[in-house]
């Protein structure tokens, strides 16, 4: 990046299939650090020798939050985030699911903080997930809706509603890339000298 930037966290939220992974890949191209909260859940599933499907992932996510508090995934990721901030001035925390995680990170990390949500309509997201075809993606509309309701039950809707920036991803991949690039260019202009 070549510039000197203030320490900053971009907390990334969005429903499944909205485009968070594409946003994170583009962030890597810009030289930003990435920490995925979903990796915390995946690692727990692997420890338990469970199949990495959406049912098991959601079950673990809910169990951890019920047992240890709604901010547990952010607490478990704190060390990784701090290590990443030692390497990169700007870090994307991918997969914020509730306001308790946001508040925990605000209270425990000395950095600028912005919540960015990626939004796409349910029909658009369903089409993308079916085309993507990952093993944990829903195969039918009912499964898709159930997964959405599960995600919303974690508090994701509140995070999206209180986002500082919402990027609408309803167009082509090229259009979405342009929206992300425009956003990152503004970030650099704001936080970097």
TrEMBL record:
InterPro entries assigned: P-loop_NTPase
GO molecular function: kinase activity
Keyword field: Kinase, Transferase
The protein's name in its UniProt record: Dephospho-CoA kinase
Organism of origin: Ignisphaera aggregans (strain DSM 17230 / JCM 13409 / AQ1.S1)
């Amino acid at each position: 990046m070549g510039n000197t930037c203030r320490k900053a966290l971009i907390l990334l939220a969005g429903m499944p299939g909205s485009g968070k992974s594409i946003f994170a890949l583009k962030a890597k191209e810009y030289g930003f650090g990435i920490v995925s909260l979903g990796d915390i859940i995946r690692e727990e599933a692997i420890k338990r020798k469970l199949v990495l499907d959406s049912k098991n992932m959601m079950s673990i996510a809910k169990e951890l939050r019920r047992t240890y508090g709604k901010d547990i995934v952010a607490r478990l990721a704190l060390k990784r985030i701090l290590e990443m901030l030692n390497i990169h001035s700007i870090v994307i925390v991918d997969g914020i699911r509730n306001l308790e995680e946001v508040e925990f990170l605000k209270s425990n990390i000395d950095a600028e903080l912005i919540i960015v949500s990626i939004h796409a309509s349910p029909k658009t997201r369903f089409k993308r997930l079916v085309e993507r075809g990952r093993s944990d993606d829903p195969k039918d509309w009912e499964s898709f809706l159930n997964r959405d309701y599960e995600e919303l039950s974690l508090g994701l809707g509140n995070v999206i509603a209180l986002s500082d920036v919402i990027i609408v991803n309803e167009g082509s991949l090229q259009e979405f890339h342009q929206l992300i690039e425009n956003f990152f260019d503004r970030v650099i202009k704001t936080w970097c000298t």
